[in-house]
Amino acid sequence: xxxxxxxxxxxxxxxxxxxxxxxxxxxxxxxxxxxxxxxxxxxxxxxxxxxxxxxxxxxxxxxxxxxxxxxxxxxxxxxxxxxxxxxxxxxxxxxxxxxxxxxxxxxxxxxxxxxxxxxxxxxxxxxxxxxxxxxxxxxxxxxxxxxxxxxxxxxxxxx
Length: 159
Fold this sequence. Notes:
Layout (H helix, E strand, L loop, with lengths): L5 E5 L4 E5 L4 E7 L4 E5 L2 E15 L5 E13 L14 E14 L5 E16 L36
Parallel strand pairs: 6-8
Antiparallel strand pairs: 1-2, 3-5, 3-7, 4-5, 5-6, 7-8
């Protein structure tokens, strides 16, 4: 018997089972330092990511729209947590969950929560540091950024 999330798709030579899936990818900056919690014996790293999109309105004025994403990373790899500092640019991937709520004054709202399956450190906010000790946990260290004031792209290709 198939569950509501499973479907069989016909193939000329075989029947294949596919499950439905939604995956969300976000690149943005951390809004505050990550917190490591222990829930029922499992480790979870909680943080939030801000993605700002620039666009022009109908009058041609430059506008910014920021989307905040609350992230929960259930993992035993908590060594990455010291590098998840406010302002750090990250790439996160996971499954989304939209939660609706009502505020104290009666307004309806919604929040986007992401259950992280993958996280990559992309770099620090210009002029900032991402970890108290850059020598520890080299596999999680962010890539180095170009010197301050130099807006030219970095070309590190060997050819």
